[in-house]
Here is the input.
Amino acid sequence: MFQEGDKRDGMAVDGFARMLRDGKITRRGFLVKTAGLVGGLAAAEGLLARVAGAQTTKKTEVVVAQAGDLSKMDPHLTTSGWDLTILLNLYDNLTSRHRDMKLYPGLATEWKLVNPTLWQFKLRQGVKFHNGDPFTAADVKFSIERAYDSNRKLSLVRTNFQTIDHVETPDPYTVNFYTKKPDPLLPGRFSFSGGQIMPKKYAEAVGDDTFNLKPVGTGPIKFVEWIKDDRVVMDANRGYFQGKIAAVAVFGRALTADEVARHYCAAGHRE
Here is the structure.
């Protein structure tokens, strides 16, 4: 039987739905406030999907809930799975590992082993970073040297490229990696953590701290905003060399079990 308390809860949920549509609360705020009113987080997430789906928008919005908040956007300062979910889409790597576990071209179109200690990569031409800077071999040299630089004490990806002795760029679209010893796995390591390519000019101009907060890459999504402990918002890179995506990607932090329980009890439930 419908009870008076149910009516009050329903009116409260309607109010929160209006606040969400009017932009007065965030999606996470909506989940926090309604989880205790509708019987738990799962029900609140379903309600959020219905409310969000009813809103008219010019773009497709993709919401990805994660169990942890983003920590860093500098690709050399993190190996966290939560961070890489975003960073491997914000940036591109020289090579790309697909679901079949084979290695495919990324920002490099081809590569070859010239001799046992020299890998040569040919780069994709016509690619631009999100800020409009052209992508060249100078960016690759800067990014990879930055990743294994022994003077950068905070780098978490240095060991990925410890076999590299030095890097040369004979022309704007060729990079030569000289290794200390034969390293047949180097092209594969360029496809993952630490292998993301950064824009040399922008990174040097703004410095490490600003770059971590306002990153620039060449990937299919580009940075819009980061609200700590709430969401990271990305927009589609409409000039992406592999084809644009028609979506705004919002990566939201999921509620913890303690948060759900606390707000559930605060709404007067004791079950």
In short: The helical segments are 4-21, 27-38, 41-54, 81-90, 137-148, 186-189, 200-213, 257-266. The chain has two domains: 4-67+254-266, 81-220.
